[in-house]
Design goal:
The protein is α/β, with parallel strands linked by helices. The chain contains 15 helices and 13 strands. The protein has helices spanning 8-13, 25-33, 35-48, 61-65, 97-107, 121-135, 160-168, 185-193, 217-225, 256-262, 292-305, 311-321, 324-353, 379-388, 420-447, and strands at 52-54, 114-116, 151-156, 172-179, 182-183, 198-203, 234-238, 269-274, 286-289, 359-361, 370-374, 391-393, 410-413. The structure holds pyridoxal-5'-phosphate.
Length: 448
C-alpha cells in the first residue's frame, strides 16, 4: 500500500523529501521494536512543557513590523490620490485607481478588469457564491439557489475555508487529487463534461494551501478550455500567494483570465487576491479580477451593498508601495524572514524522518504551508500526541471537505508565525509524534 493518496511523485517534483513507505512487514517489525524508546522520548517531550502553535498560516509579528510605516500614512493633509480622488468621501466603487494600477501589473490583468475592495478576499469569494446563489452568474439558466443540486470541485488536500463556504451554501463537494502541477485536470474535465450540476472549481494556483503546488500552464489551459455541461461553470482562482515566493525564483502564475478568453470561455475565471500576507492580515486590501462581463455582474450587486470601499486604506497602501516593484521588494523582505523557517522544517523532518519510511512532505517554493503525509490511519493520532506534548497542529482532516481525510494521513504545518527557535522545537516534537504514532500503528497491526 502506498504511503498516502498523493503518491511519492508529488513530493519529488516539488523538490521535497519523499520517502517511499510501504507498510510492509519488515518495516512494521522494525517500527514496532522502537515503541519503548519512542514512548520514552515522548514522555521527555511532555516534561519539557512546550506551548507551541503551528495551526494557522498567519504572518509573524516580525513580518507585520515590515509595514509599520503605513501607520503614518497617508499622513496629515494627504487625502487625494494621484488621480485627484478624495479618499475621505463616499464613492469609487471600483477602488482607488492608484492602487489598482499597481496590482493590475502584479496580477497581470487589465486595470479595468480589477477591483480593489475590502479587507479580505475570503469575503469576496463568499459574496461571489452568495450572488451566484441568489441571482446566478452571467450565463446561468437560473440562480444557483434554485437548482436542486449544486456541486463544487475541491482539489485535496485544500483550504478549509473554501470548503466552509461551499458547505454553508449547501453545495456538494466533490474531490479531485492535487498533483505537482495543480488539480488533476483530467479528473476535473471528466467530472464537468456531462454533469450540469457541477458549477465550480476551487483552485489556489500559486503555492497552494497546503501543498505548495503551482498550476502549470498546461493545466491552466486544460481547465479553462475543457467543455463543461454547466453553461455557468466558474473557476474560483484564489491567488492568495501570487507574490509569496520563498526562493529567488519568483514564479509567475499562469494567466488564467487571458487563457480563458483565448479558449472562448472568457467568463470562466474569477481571480481573488489580497494584501493580507503582504501588509496586515485584517487591515489589507482584497482584489477581484475577471472578464468585463463578470466584473460588471459583480459590480452591479456590489453597488447595492456598498457605496465604496475604504479608500483611505487603499491610498495608504499605494503610498507605502509606490509601485509594483515596491511590492516585490517588500515581498523579498518577507521571504528573508520566512525562508529560514521553511528550511528548518525540511531540515528537521529530513534528519528525524528521512530514512524511516513513515512520512513524506513538501518543500514548497512559496506560500505559507508544508503538507505532511504520515502513515495512513495515524494523522489524527499524531495531532493528538502533539497536543499532549504542548504543540497545537491544524486538526487532522482539515485539508479535506467536511473535515474528513479518507486516509487519515494528511497534516498541514504552518511555520510562519512562531519565531525560528519555536518552529524548530515544534517540528522536532512533531517528528517524535509521527514516529510514535507509526510505531503504535505497526505494533497494533502485528498484534491484530
Ligand atoms: C488559499 C487562501 N485563500 C485565502 C486566504 C485568506 O485571504 P484573505 O485574508 O484575503 O481573506 C487564505 C489564508 O490563509 C488562504 O490560504
Amino acid at each position: 500500500m502506498p504511503l498516502s493518496h498523493h503518491g511519492a511523485a508529488r513530493g519529488a517534483s516539488l523538490g521535497a523529501v519523499s520517502t517511499s513507505a510501504p507498510s510492509s512487514a519488515p518495516h512494521a517489525d522494525a517500527l514496532a521494536a522502537l515503541l519503548p524508546e519512542l514512548r520514552e522520548q515522548y514522555a521527555a517531550l511532555q516534561q519539557a512543557g512546550l506551548t507551541l502553535d503551528l495551526t494557522r498560516g498567519k504572518p509573524s509579528a516580525q513580518q507585520l513590523d515590515l509595514s509599520n510605516a503605513m501607520l503614518a500614512l497617508p499622513g496629515e493633509g494627504v487625502f487625494t490620490d494621484a488621480d485627484g480622488v478624495d479618499v475621505r468621501n463616499y464613492g469609487g466603487l471600483d477602488g482607488l485607481p492608484q492602487l489598482r494600477r499597481i496590482f493590475a501589473e502584479l496580477l497581470d490583468v487589465p486595470m479595468a478588469q480589477l477591483l480593489a475592495l475590502g479587507n479580505a478576499s475570503l469575503t469576496l469569494m463568499h459574496d461571489v457564491i452568495a450572488y451566484a446563489t441568489l441571482w446566478g452568474v452571467p450565463g446561468s439558466p437560473r440562480p444557483w439557489g434554485r437548482e436542486e443540486l449544486v456541486k463544487i470541485i475541491c482539489p485535496v488536500p485544500g483550504y478549509d475555508r473554501h470548503f466552509a463556504v461551499a458547505q454553508a451554501f449547501g453545495f456538494e463537494m466533490v474531490t479531485v487529487p492535487m498533483t505537482p502541477d495543480g488539480p488533476d485536470a483530467e479528473a476535473v474535465a471528466a467530472l464537468v463534461a456531462d454533469d450540469p450540476t457541477v458549477k465550480g472549481l476551487w483552485v489556489v494556483p500559486t503555492y497552494a494551501n497546503p501543498d505548495g503546488a503551482v498550476v502549470s500552464e498546461a493545466v491552466a489551459r486544460r481547465l479553462v478550455s475543457m467543455p463543461t455541461a454547466a453553461p455557468d461553470f466558474r473557476i474560483l482562482w484564489d491567488n492568495a500567494y501570487a507574490l509569496h515566493h520563498l526562493t529567488g525564483n519568483e514564479t509567475k502564475t499562469a494567466n488564467a483570465i487571458d487563457l480563458a478568453e483565448q479558449a472562448g470561455n472568457p467568463d470562466r475565471v474569477l481571480m481573488f487576491a489580497s494584501t493580507s500576507k503582504i501588509t496586515w492580515a485584517g487591515a489589507g486590501v482584497a482584489f477581484l479580477a475577471s472578464s468585463p462581463a463578470n466584473i460588471a455582474w459583480y459590480r452591479s450587486h456590489l453597488a447595492v451593498q456598498s457605496i465604496g470601499p475604504d479608500k483611505v486604506n487603499q491610498l495608504r497602501h499605494a503610498l507605502f508601495f509606490g509601485d509594483a516593484e515596491g511590492v516585490r521588494e517588500h515581498m523579498r523582505r518577507h521571504r528573508d524572514i520566512l525562508a529560514p523557517k521553511f528550511a528548518a522544517v525540511n531540515r528537521i523532518l529530513t534528519q528525524r524522518l528521512g530514512d524511516k519510511g513513515v512520512a513524506h512532505w513538501t518543500d514548497p517554493q512559496g506560500g505559507y504551508f508544508v503538507s505532511l503525509d504520515v502513515v495512513p490511519g495515524t494523522a489524527a493520532r499524531v495531532v493528538e500526541l502533539a497536543k499532549g506534548a504542548g504543540v497545537v497542529l491544524t486538526p487532522a482532516g482539515a485539508t479535506f471537505p467536511y473535515g474528513k481525510d479518507p486516509h487519515d494521513a494528511n497534516i498541514r504545518l504552518a511555520p510562519s508565525m512562531p519565531p525560528l527557535a519555536e518552529v524548530e522545537a515544534a517540528i522536532d516534537a512533531v517528528a517524535t509524534c509521527v514516529l510514535l504514532a507509526a510505531a503504535e500503528h505497526a505494533a497494533g497491526a502485528i498484534a491484530g
